[in-house]
Design a protein that fits this description.
It is a single chain. The protein has about 230 residues and is α+β, with helices and mostly antiparallel strands. The protein is built from four helices and 16 strands. Strands 3, 6, 9, 10, 14, 15 and 16 form a seven-stranded mixed sheet that branches. Strand 7 (about 90-95) and strand 8 form a beta hairpin. The longest helix has 10 residues, at about 40-50. The radius of gyration is 18 Å and the shape is globular. Residues about 1-10 and about 15-25 have low confidence and may be disordered.
Amino acid sequence: MDSPQLSQSCELALPCCAEGGSLPCFKAPQVSGVRVQLEMCALWQQFDQLGTEMIVTKTGRRMFPTFQVRISGMDPAAEYVLLMDFIPIDDKRYRYAFHSSSWLVAGRADVAAPGRMHFHPDSPARGAQWMKQTVSFDALKLTNNLLDDNGHMILNSMHRYQPRFHVVYVDPTPNSHLQAHRNFCSFSFPETRFIAVTAYQNHRITQLKIASNPFAKGFRTTDPQDW
């Protein structure tokens, strides 16, 4: 699934309607007009300017900022499945240099963790329902446990990742699997990229998370790693 281009405002993603190769791949009308707007875009941009870090734990940790979007252009009567995955940005492993407050390449990436998809728990649902309100992936959790059996997204610590959001039209016609490539569109917002960590490295990220996360207010005087 290729990533779409973003508008200059970083607020609206346009669907990818062509696969790799010289011939265009025409999408089904149920997905060709879908548009997705990233919620809390300004907050994501603040984190991205500092170098976003997301905690991964053995038991799984929710993301903050939470990945939330608003969707338009769906067929109100058609059913859709919404899902997310995370792809490595490069083939490198990183370390944080405290003396320069910057991330440095520490070597080649570890063996990639098993790829997984996170299905939004309301899937499948009609387009009218998805477009009615903000779609939030607040149940999604990140883990570094390669043996995880809870369905969490498995990531390698100290590696960079790009979240991807996918809209899949549930085609009721016979043999619809033969046209599966026409029935989805993918969205990727560069400002949501992050480095997976087991503990926050950049103190400015810690401060911004505490300041902007309503569930972290009680941790202003405690260890920020607890949240």
